[in-house]
Amino acid sequence: MKLNFSYKTRKETIDGLKNTDLDLLIIGGGITGAGVAIQAAKAGAKVGLLEMQDFAEGTSSRSTKLVHGGIRYLKTFDVGVVSDTVKERAVVQGIAPHIPKPFPMLLPIYDTPDQTFDMFSVKIAMDLYDRLAGVESSQYANYTIDRDEVLQREPGLKSDKLLGAGVYLDYVNNDARLVIENIKGAAELGGLMASRVKAVSVSHNADGKIDGVTAEDVLSGEKFDVNAKLVINTTGPWSSKFLGLDDKNGDKGQVIRPTKGVHLVVDESVLSVPQPTYSDSGVGDGRMIFVVPREGKTYFGTTDTDYTGDYTHPTVEQADVDYLLKAINNRFPEANVTIDDIEASWAGIRPLLGSNAGSDYNGGGANTGKVSDESFNNLIDTVNKYNEGEVERGDVEKSISALKQSSGEKEISASQVSRGSSLDVGEDGLITLSGGKITDYRKMAAGAMELITKTLKDEFNVVIKEIDSKKLQVSGGHFDPTNVEKTLDFYTKLAIGKGIPQDEAEDLANRFGSNTGRVVSYAAHVETAPGLTLADTISLHYSINEEMTLTPIDYLLRRTNFVLFHEDKLAAKKDAIVDEMARVLGWSDDEKQKQADELNDLIAETRLDALKK
Ligand SMILES: Cc1cc2nc3c(=O)[nH]c(=O)nc-3n(C[C@H](O)[C@H](O)[C@H](O)COP(=O)(O)OP(=O)(O)OC[C@H]3O[C@@H](n4cnc5c(N)ncnc54)[C@H](O)[C@@H]3O)c2cc1C
Ligand SMILES: O=P(O)(O)OC[C@H](O)CO
C-alpha cells in the first residue's frame, strides 16, 4: 500500500521544505494553520506548514468540541463574533459533512439574579441567532419550553426557581479530526505538511523582510532553513511567543491573553442529558457551563482562568475540578458527581486577544456593572433594524459604544474578553492570524488568503487562483452535505460487506467519511492484529499510512476518541495498539517501552489519578 502521508513521506516532506522556495510558510498546525494550508494549496501556492507537536495537539484538540455561534457572546455585545460564527456553522458542516453534526442545545432559565438570560431575553437572543444564521424557518428554528417540559426532558436538572428553557441549533464537533482532515486535504493538494518540526528562529532578507525560518526536526534534532516569500504565524496561544522570535517585527502585533479551560468526562450512568445543555454555572460568577452527551459518556466544562503555565502541557488542577463539580452538582443536584466518577479530562488554552477588551458585560468580575435588559434589548432592536435595512451600521456601532462607555473602565475578566480574531502584518511582513474560534476558522483563513494573494501578486508577481473556500471540502468530506445520513449509511454497509460488525462499521464511516472505502480496502492486505478487531486494524494502518500518526497517543487521543470517551475499549486495546504500531513502524524494544510509558502516563493524567485520593 502506497504510504501517502506517513512517517515515510515525512522525510520527503522535510526534504521538500529544505529545497523549495515556498510562496507561503505557515507556522502552527492547529485549525487556524490547517485552514490556511488547504486554501493556499487549492489556490496553487507552493505552501509548507510546520507544526512542532502533532497536528491539533495544541488548543484545537482541547475545545468543547462544538461548532457554535457563542450565544452568550450576545450578552457581551460580541454581535460581530456571533454573526460570523453562527453563519459559519453551516459552512463548516458543508466542507466537512462527516464531522460537525447539528444537535439543538437546551438552555435552562432560572429566576435567580446571576442569570445570563431570562425567558424574554433568551428568546430575543435565539431569534437574532437564528436570523443571523438564516435558520429561522428551518426544522431547527428555536423555541422555548416551559418548566414542566424541561423537567420531562431532563429530570435531573435543578427544579428550584426553574422557569423554562430555550432550545436552539448548535453543532457537536470532533475538533482534532477537523484539523487532520484539513491538513490531509492540503497534503493531497501538494502542500508540504510537517508535524514535529518547530520554527526556532526567523530570517530576513537585505531589505529587512522576513524570508523564512530555521526549523528543527523535533524527532532527529536536525536543524534546517526553510525559505518562503511570505510567512504566517498561526500559533494560537503561542502567537506572542513566536512574535518574540522576530526582532524586526516592530509593533509586535497582538498580545495574547491565554486562559485555561477544563472539561471533565463521566459515564452517562452518572450524569445523563438527552441533548447538549448550556446553563449558568449557578455559582454566581457569570460563567456558563456546557454539558454534552457523547458516545455513551457526558462531558462538561469549562473553566476560564488566566494562565501562565506551560502552553504545551496545560494540566487539570484540583481547583478546576472543584469548580466544575460544584457547578455541575448545583445544576444536577441528584447526580452527586465526585472526582472518583471522572473517567477522563482535558485542559486547553484559549488564544484570546489581550486587546479585545471586554465590552459591557453583565457577568465576569464582581466589580463589573450589570447591563440593564433595556440596554440589551435596545441593542438587539437596533441590530434587527440594521438587518432589515432600516438603520445604518453606524447606528449599531453607536449603540454598542454607548454601552461600553456606560460600563466604565473596569477590570476585564477572562470571560468578558471578545472571542474575535485578528489579522496583523508586522513591519518585516510577518503575517499573524490569531484569536478566533474553531467555528470561524474557514472565514479567518479566507481573510488571510485575500491578503496573501494580493501580497504575492503585488510584491512577488506570483499569481495564485481565487478559490471558493466555502465549497472547498476537506479530506473525507467529499460528499453531499445535505445527504449525510444516507452517505454514511452507504459507507457503513461497505464496511459490513467486509465482515465488520455494524457498530464498528458505523464508527469507521463517521470517523473517515468519504475515505472509508480506502480504509476498508486495507482489509485485503492486512492481517487482523492480535488483540484487535479487523476494524481496529485497518483503521490504525490507514491512520499510520495516511494521517501522519506517529505515536499511540496521536491515534488514541486525536485521530480517535478512545482516551476521552471509551475507557473500557482503551483498557482492552491499548497494549495491542502499541504492539501493532511497534511492528509496523519497526520500533526497538526501548522505543516501544517509551511509547507505552508515555501513553500510560497520559491516561493516568487524563483520568486524574494523581488528584484521586
Ligand atoms: C477550553 C476551550 C474550549 C473551546 N471550545 C470551543 C468550541 O467548542 N468551539 C470553537 O469554535 N472554539 C472553541 N474554543 C476555541 C478554539 O479551540 C481555538 O480558538 C482554536 O482551537 C485555536 O486554534 P489555533 O490553530 O489558532 O491554535 P492551536 O490549536 O493552539 O494551534 C497552534 C499550533 O501552533 C504550534 N506552534 C506553536 N509554536 C510553534 C513553533 N514555533 N513552530 C511550530 N509550531 C508551533 C502549536 O504546537 C499548536 O499546535 C475553545 C478553546 C478552549 C481553550
Ligand atoms: O470561550 P468561552 O467562554 O465561550 O468557552 C468556550 C466554550 O466552551 C465553547 O466555545
Which features would summarize this protein structure in a list?
globular, binds flavin-adenine dinucleotide, 8-stranded mixed beta sheet, 6-stranded antiparallel beta sheet, 613 residues, binds SN-glycerol-3-phosphate, 39% helix, Alpha-glycerophosphate oxidase, 19 helices, alpha+beta
Structure summarized in a few sentences:
This protein is an alpha+beta fold and 613 residues long.
Distance between the termini: 49 Å
Average predicted confidence as pLDDT:
92
Bound molecules: flavin-adenine dinucleotide, SN-glycerol-3-phosphate
Helix content: 25-40%
> Which shape, going by the Cα principal axes?
globular
State the major sheet. Answer: 8 strands, mixed
Pfam families: DAO (PF01266), DAO_C (PF16901)
InterPro entries: DAO_C, DAO_C_sf, FAD-dep_OxRdtase, FAD/NAD-bd_sf, G3P_DH_FAD-dep
Protein name: Alpha-glycerophosphate oxidase
Family: Belongs to the FAD-dependent glycerol-3-phosphate dehydrogenase family.
